[in-house]
Amino acid sequence: MIILEDVSKSYSKGAPALSKVSLHIEKGEFVFIVGDSGSGKSTLIKLLLRELYPTDGRIIVNNTDVTKLKHSRIPKYRRGIGTVFQDFRLLKDRNVYENVAFAQRVISVPSSKIRKNVPSVLSMVGLAEKYKSRPKELSGGEQQRVALARAIVNNPPILLADEPTGNLDPKNSWEIMRLLEQINYNGTTVLVVTHSREIVNTMKKRVITMKKGVIVSDQKKGGYIDEY
Amino acid sequence: MSISTFFYTLGQGIKNLVRNKLFSLATIATISACVFLFGLFYAIVLNFQNIVKQAQAGVAVTVFFEEGTSDERIAEIGEEIKLRGEVSKVVFVSAEEAWESFKNENLGDYVDSFGDDNPLEDDANYEIYLNDVSMQNNLVDYVEKLDGVRKVHKSEVVASMLTSVNSLVGYVSMGIILILLAVSIFLISNTVALGITVRREEIAIMKLIGATDFVVRAPFVFEGLILGLVGSVLPLVAIYFIYDNIVTYLSERFALINSLLKFLTIDEIFGTLAPIALAMGVGIGFLGSFTTARKHLRV
Fold this sequence. Notes:
Largest sheet of chain B: 4 strands, antiparallel
Radius of gyration of chain B: 30 Å
Low-confidence stretches of chain B: none
Low-confidence stretches of chain A: none
Oligomer: heterodimer
CATH topology of the largest domain in chain A: Rossmann fold
Number of strands of chain B: 4
Strand content of chain A: 25-35%
Shape of chain B: elongated
Radius of gyration of chain A: 18 Å
Order of helices and strands of chain A: EEEHEEHEHHHEHEHEE
Number of strands of chain A: 10
CATH class of the largest domain in chain A: Alpha Beta
Number of domains of chain B: 2
CATH superfamily of the largest domain in chain A: P-loop containing nucleotide triphosphate hydrolases
Strand content of chain B: 5-15%
Mean pLDDT of chain A: 91
Order of helices and strands of chain B: HHEHEHEHEHHHHH
Mean pLDDT of chain B: 82
Strand order of the largest sheet of chain B: 2-3-1-4
CATH architecture of the largest domain in chain A: 3-Layer(aba) Sandwich
Number of helices of chain B: 10
């Protein structure tokens, strides 16, 4: 599903953000990526989204060699990856329904399908009743659930969550993690970048630990490692 | 692009316009000024061309024949001249007709002293009328080389003056229009760039979700097209109602103009002005928005 072979990424200044990283993630896996700031987690996510291009190495996602991807093919490639961010990134001038429908509108899904899909995915994240609410009328946890609904409404085989609980209290954080687990249970490969020791240690999933651009640990049912 | 995406992106384009009201109004005002001036100069140029055409109808090249040229050869010369593209009409004036005309115009009571003599018996000629006065010299060069032609008269001053005034009006209007075009494109570009800045977050999300370049850019191109369309329709409406008033005013105020010239009607001018002005407005809108969206929205 996701294969990285000796992937390096250097910016113009300073040490490389990633250095010869190799990684193999199977279809349907749930993986935590942990590490301090500057360890290369965000660079890894950006490379997978093809927001950045690797300096060296090869990245294969959903059988597509991302390093050979033509510019015109990037949009179609990204439709196979749902993304969730720490700051939710919702459109403040639109209600919950429109925020989720937006993800389908911009990839030309017919209106009849949008009318069917959006209520269904809002029910799944528990926000069917609040479809008319604007983001500012929702709690942080609810906003993140809208972002999750938007990320999965197009049924992507992969979901990337970059610090999805970073702005949430423990109760809401666990609600989001349970939803991610449910999405993974339904067959979606889930990668979660997080700093939450408690979540990582409790959920007992695969944990990849990064430090200074390299993978220092890859545990099948691991926990949060503080020192390397 | 599906129908729902078309209407969605169109709706977003209209929202952009409303969101950046002041910039949109400034852009429409500039395009309107540009198209209005274009329309104004276009009307002047068309009227001037009409005046030139009226004048050209009276400007003729006169061709005289060598003594003893046969009637057959004169007829052949006439046929050869008629084949030229710049020639609109060829009229044969016999020696008798030339003398009659001269007598009526110049001699008055002294005509009897000539008796039956015709002093212009060698002055049978062709009067040649042109489609385009500027081609007069080419025609004269050609006719002078024909066998049997003795002399060619041309009215160089009128021809060159009309041609050069027409060109001058054309160049001046073209210069002003080009400057206004550049300003319009610059303003549309700024309006669209502002819209892109305001919607940066939304654009970033669209790109992550997998929207194509086309869908990301479409609202901004629609915005430009609408600005261009509105900016060209408004001055066209203004010109439509103002033109008749100006012509009426000029005709009443300056009676001399009215006796010399016949202005074109607004319908005669609008037949070509409307499509050109609309294409110009929409073209400015498209060019300004598409290039800016392309520059700022590489996915």
